[in-house]
Amino acid sequence: MADRTKKIINPTWTAMAVLILSILVVIFASRLLYQRTVDLLTDNLRERLLTISITAAANIRSSDIDALNTEEDWQKPEWGQVVNQLHKAKYSNEDIVFMYIFRKTKQDPTQMEFVADADSIDPYANTSGDPSRFVDVNRDGKIEPDGPDKLQWPGQSYLEAVDIPETFEAYNGPLTSSELYTDDYGTVLTGYAPIKDDTGNSVAILATDIKADDFFIITRQTLQPFLIFIASLTSIITFLVIFIILIWRKYTKSLGKLNIDLKELIKQRENLVHLVTHKVKGSFTRSKYIFAGILDGTFGEINAEVKKRAEQGLESDNMGIETVDLVLSVANMQKGVVKYEMKEMDLKDLVLKTVAEKSIAAQAKGLKVETEIKPARNASGIADAGGEGTYKISGDAFWLKEVVNNLIENSIKYTKEGKITVGLSKQNNKVLLTVGDTGVGISAEDKKNLFTEGGRGKDSVKVNVDSTGYGLYSVKLIVEAHNGTVSAESAGSGTGSTFSVELPELK
Predict the structure, then answer these.
(1) How many Cα atoms sit within 13 Å of 388 on the Cβ side?
(2) Where are the domains of the chain?
(3) What are phi and psi of 144, to 5 degrees?
(4) Which of 405, 418, 377 is nearest to 499 (CA)?
(5) At what angle do helices 281-295 and 304-335 cross, to 10 degrees?
């Protein structure tokens, strides 16, 4: 029991671990939810952007693109047709910041040039100095001709394109930029769609920059209720942890006192075992030799009455020594110091030998001891050929003999007339030993106390006043150490009893 108290886990550390783990889970869950929300909203934004870009690109004629090659071409009617289409598409959606067309240069396919954008009906409007002609391209209320409000004309270099892989990849099909990005124009996501000629070849790319600033607002609005819930949950967990710690402190004070009492109890028990071992058993042994000496004539001639009394004393001493040995054996089993030498053995040989030894004591009471050894049976209940066969198990012969001895002696003690039947059978990979008698039986109330330390039934005490209640308890400990089970059945008082031991068969 002392070892068990050392294994009690301190709930304070457990509670702190739960708190830390909960916080980590909250952080992980929040991060996961945030990323999942971002991914969902980004996917939705990408789909919208691709739809806008593909639709706008489909309304641009490749022949108009082919006509726009130099700065002077902005005055051509094709320029007006292309820019008007872009302008219409851009201003149909208030989230679009820029919409423009670019293509690979004829001189160097690794470089790009602008063809047109949605606000460049007059490429020189923002540098004219005439406010009536100014165009606020990014709709921020300010005119920045060398910044976000710079206007384009055909053939203008698009130097930044070499650092944007999507500008080249878009020739193979519609796509969006891999990530949201923030620059001087704000946070945007760009969609690309190829403009194709009549043969299906991509001649230019239409790009659409869409605002993503609202995206983060939507994300925060989505996460806010969850974060409030997480904060509340964390507060509740923290409160519970504090509560557990306070309860544990109170508990440990009580536990400390209990441990002191328990240690004192264990010490007293060990002292008692030591006393029984060295004092009580020693006294029984000395008196045993005195009675034995009287009986064998060591102290001279004795009359019949003295001989009778000496025999009674010797019997009483032997019973006392057996009781002490039994109690000490149980104590050692409980402490786990008993070492079982598990070897292959035939339980049938041990049973037959023990029955032969115990038959003498049974006959002295007018009882008969019979054996019923049945042939082995398979899982279907069919008897195996070849007779009884062997009953091989893995066990310690010394301690298993104690089990058989105890059960037979028990039946002899509590049976006034009739017989004791010792049975042995095999079924479903188990060896079953049974000891049945026609004795006092077991009441339903007494049955609950069987196989417990010091457990004794009311009817059994009437028959055997010297019962200690440790015999069947020792049987249980030994059988369980052999991975077996023990049980008892009786129809009630005066109907006899049957004790059963089940052990694993050794194949």
Answers:
(1) 14
(2) 59-211, 339-504
(3) -125, 85
(4) 405
(5) 150
User: pLDDT higher for 259 or 495?
Assistant: 495
Type of residue numbered 309: R
CATH classification code of 339-504:
3.30.565.10
pLDDT digits (tens, 9 = 90+) for 70-96: 989 999 999 999 999 999 999 888 888
Sign of the dihedral defined by the CA atoms of residues 134, 139, 142, 144, in that order? negative
> In angstroms, rounded to a whole number, what is the distance separating the alpha carbons of residues 138 and 142?
9
The answer to whether domain 59-211 has CATH 4.10.910.10 is: no
Strand, coil or helix: 336: coil
Instruction: Return d(Cα 395, Cα 413) in angstroms, integer.
Output: 27
Look up the pTM and report it: 0.44
Q: Enumerate the β-bridge partners of residue 186.
A: 183
**Could you read off the pLDDT of 196-224 as tens digits, one per residue?**
999 999 999 999 998 876 666 656 666 66
Place of tokens 């026609």: 438
**Closest Cα to residue 427, out of 383, 376, 391, 389?**
376
- Of residues 195, 124, 123, the one with CA closest to residue 154: 123
Structure token pair of residue 177: 């930029």
